[in-house]
Amino acid sequence: MLLSHLPAPATPRPPAPGGTVLDWFSHWARVRPHAPAVLTPEACWDYAAVDGLSSELAARLREHLAPGDVVGVLLPRSVTLVVTALALAKVGATYLPLGENPPKERRESIVETAAARHLLASADHPDVGGDPVVRHAVAGTKVALTGTGRTAGMAGAAGPAPYAIATSGSTGRPKVVLGSQESLTTLISWLATRLAITEEDRVAMTASPGFDAHLLDLWLALGTGAALVVPPEEALSSAEGLLEWCADQRIDSMFLPTPLGELVMGATRPAHLALRRLLVGGDRLRAVPAGDFPAEVLNVYGPTEAGVLTTTHVVGAHEDPLAIPIGVPLSGRTVTVTDEAGEVVPRGTLGELRVTGAGVALGYAGGHFGGFVPAAEGEERTYRTGDRVLMRPEGVLEFHGRLDDQFKIDGVRLEPAEIEAALLSFPGVTSAAAFPFTTGGGIRQVGAALTTSPGATRSEQALLAHAAARLPGPAVPRAALFLDDLPTNDNGKIDRAALAELLRNRLGGEEEDRSPATVLLRMVRDLVGQDLGLEDSLADAGVNSLTTARLLSRMREEFGLRVRAVDVIRAETVADILPALR
């Protein structure tokens, strides 16, 4: 009997000498100083220039940072962000990318959890207050380091926590994952070999800072001597526009979130497109590339806690789009499927996915374990993902959902407890529950239910505004119920399904027309903010590839997995989509 266990493959030879991704970058800066390192719509910086800029910034930062300090970075995709990441690596600090403008209270919660007493942002960023301890110009952008005091050093220079990434937290606060050097080196070594990245390649910087895939973009290019190409924001608003940009910039490799990746696979392609590899991840993949799609498509899976990526699967043109697996493990990641007692189950049996090995992150900032299994000295780290999977007889993993209350909205993983903590901080709220629900218009959203103390003001508008200031966009509830008590099921747990039904009924869902045509039309109207008819032009209403990606995700939540990306892409009107629902 074959058990559901696959050891990690051997780590390939690193793409350059040295034991860290920074060592690899430094190697390429020495041997190929004039090769392009970062290209933006405005300019091109070679390896020597980027190395010099990052060394200058590192010298300034060393005056106020110690090795192991955590630094939150509030910068968009740019050469300034790249230089900052390199400078922090040279200092030995922990790089915590936050995106350019996260909700202020969430950002403050992340910074507190990570014990990051320093923020680095553009000098004119609204959250740069007080008297910055460092002001420095990087490639024409003035950046400022703010903060007082230092965090306790977690490691020496190039220490074991080169990066930290915030994720949704089951405790009601964001969790901060501390990554290891081995997480990065095993990931980049494996991908560089598997994708055959060379110094002549161009890698797109498409992942948003603040998400772990940003590290993949950054180091897959700079660790292999390739060029990192930053797209203009407008290129990311359309699948066709993104492919035109890829063709014009001669992009070889690109990562995309799953909904946008599906649209790119089905979009009209320019004749001069040179894309050779497309990685898609973040949600269930439900589309396959056309037979003439030029790039190899890899469906990638991995929690942040398990080293950005855990498994990959090459997607074939003739696969069943409703049964695309998540694949086999990367270097540094042994995968095992276990039952509730932690025993390995036979292949073909559903269970929880556990990941073990050097690729697993160090743990959470603050020391709480969560899904990390305490390891004795000399043992490898293990992370319990909470994902329900099945290992096929040939050793390929299938994803079958979650084992807990986590849910996704528009591809973003959400913890109810984090949303509930934001709701509980509203004056007068005594208990709260967050849950997904489908509106009468067929839109999957976050809902909230609350109880309050006697005499407390029950203002739904004020409550939702309060939540919006503390949560990322997809996690903000759309509507709320004020109740005397929260309903429970037979196990004594909050009955979130009952709450979803209550909220849908309150919003009129029970009385509304639930025919496929009406539900679909409401979805489109909600996305474009216009009162469209079935035969009105989607293009004239401003529907672009990002809108289509959101529509596709919502249609699948409502109508099931049979909805294909190509059916939505080719539609000129809402009526054109209806045959796909029959």
UniProtKB/TrEMBL annotation:
It comes from the Bacteria. Keywords: Phosphopantetheine, Phosphoprotein. The keyword Phosphoprotein applies. One of its GO terms (biological process) is secondary metabolite biosynthetic process. GO terms for cellular component: cytoplasm. InterPro entries: ACP-like_sf, AMP-bd_C, AMP-bd_C_sf, AMP-dep_synth/lig_dom, PP-bd_ACP, Ppantetheine_attach_site. It holds the Pfam family AMP-binding. Residues 511-582 form the Carrier domain. One of its GO terms (molecular function) is phosphopantetheine binding. This is Putative NRPS. It comes from Streptomyces griseoaurantiacus M045. The lineage of its organism: Bacteria, Bacillati, Actinomycetota, Actinomycetes, Kitasatosporales.
